[in-house]
Write a structure and sequence with these properties.
By secondary structure, the chain is α+β, with helices and mostly antiparallel strands. It contains 17 helices and 12 strands. It has one domain: Orthogonal Bundle (Cytochrome p450). The protein is globular and about 60 Å long. The protein starts with 9 loop residues before the first helix and ends with a strand. The relative contact order is 0.18.
Length: about 400
């Protein structure tokens, strides 16, 4: 029997990879009735579909809800949908191109690289605190504070306000899970309102008194007379925080759990940090990616692996499965920190490829590097448990001693 794909099951969330292998082998394109989505599990299909313009993150740029056979959104969720719908992740067509072009002008490799001393310093301070305490929860003490501090520094969020960001982000990203509960939706809506109000006030301050930060540059960004609207500014800043730090936090936690379960590879990395760290970060992102599923709407009838999927269907592209596909990766279930042929899709592909990928890579490199160099005796205290979410998959804690 094929292992069951069951994202509501704690056992599946903890270990989805056997079920993925069965899907790739027996049903690589199949409708999953509990959510009404079509699961796509093979690397070649997922990679191609991320670039296929017959699909979209949304469909409203071409169809009304009625034309697409979908219900109208709940009016009570409007603040969340307005916030999410004006960000790069859920935009298509000319609006996506325009906003990405404007944001890319100020979110450059040079801008990111200029942050490296700040990131390295923050990572070192966090690791030193963990060392002074003799250990603790690596996620709460290192993985979470670092990307929040970095993106807040990048955007120009005052240090006194940074404690607000993580709870807002966690509440909003709860809506990305499959079949979110009414309580999840309520919390996401409240966070969307509060975060948006906060950013509008901060934007107003930056308009009157610009600073040396990304938000000030975004306020001034223009291209042949085009500029970001205030809502686009707000949505872009929220996306930069949510997408950037959620992925980095969970890659750090999942990555260290993978290393601790593979002591031979951890010893190999500790023995050659400078040499192996770049490929190790890529391999850890492939091996246990935080973003397990990415949704796309079928805008025109399409054939995938010999299966016809009709317009109006929703695809669930299984990133975690694609990254373990033996048709693309040699020994995919083996953690190989020296792997060089590693075109994982943890950052997506096509027009929605993660704009913050260079920043995420730099944060991960500095975070893992600081822990490897300063805490060579880091070891696990107890086996961790997984958060209930599946789409964004991560640990509740990772308690270590030094």
């Amino acid at each position: 029997m094929m292992p069951e794909f069951d994202p509501q099951s704690a056992a599946f969330v903890a270990e989805p990879y056997q079920a993925y292998a069965a899907l790739r082998e027996q049903a690589p394109v199949v409708r999953y009735e509990p959510t009404g989505q079509w699961l796509v599990s093979r690397y070649a299909d997922v990679s191609a579909l991320l670039r296929d313009r017959r699909l979209g993150r949304v469909y409203t740029h071409r169809f009304s809800h009625a034309e697409f056979g979908r219900p109208e959104p709940d009016p009570a969720h409007e603040p969340f949908h307005t916030l999410n719908g004006n960000g790069l992740l859920d935009l298509e067509g000319p609006d996506h191109t325009r906003i990405r072009r404007l944001v890319s002008k100020v979110f450059t490799p040079r801008t990111v690289e200029a942050l490296r001393p700040t990131v390295a310093g923050s990572a070192g301070e966090l690791v030193d605190r963990l060392l002074a305490a003799g250990g603790g929860d690596l996620i709460a003490e290192v993985a979470e504070p670092l990307p929040v501090a970095v993106i807040a520094e990048l955007l120009g969020v005052p240090e006194t306000d940074r404690g607000l960001l993580r709870p807002w982000s966690a509440a909003i990203t709860g809506m990305f899970e499959l079949n979110p509960s009414p309580e999840t939706a309520r919390l996401a809506v409240a966070a969307s309102v509060e975060f948006s109000d906060y950013l509008r006030e901060l934007i107003a301050r930056r308009r009157s008194a610009p600073g040396p930060d990304l938000l000030s540059e975004l306020v001034q960004a223009h291209d042949e007379g085009e500029a970001l609207s205030e809502q686009e500014l707000v949505s872009t800043c929220v996306l930069l925080l949510n997408a950037g730090h959620e992925a980095t936090v969970n890659t750090t936690g999942n990555g260290w759990w993978a290393l601790l379960r593979n002591p031979g590879e951890l010893a190999r990395l500790r023995g050659a940090v400078d040499e192996l760290l770049p490929t190790a970060v890529e391999e850890l992102m492939r091996y246990d990616t935080p973003l397990q599923l990415f949704e796309r709407w079928v805008l025109d009838d399409i054939e995938i692996g010999g299966v016809t999927v009709p317009r109006g269907a929703e695809l669930a592209l299984l990133f975690g499965s694609a990254n373990r596909d033996p048709a693309r990766f040699t020994d995919p279930d083996t953690l190989d920190l020296g792997r060089t042929d590693n075109p994982h899709i943890s950052f997506g592909a096509g027009i929605h490829f993660c704009l913050g990928a260079p920043l995420a890579r730099m944060e991960l490199t500095e975070s893992f590097g600081a822990l490897l160099r300063r805490a060579p005796g880091l070891r696990l205290v107890r086996e961790p448990s997984w958060q209930p979410g599946y789409v964004i998959r991560g640990l509740t804690e990772l308690v270590v001693e030094l």
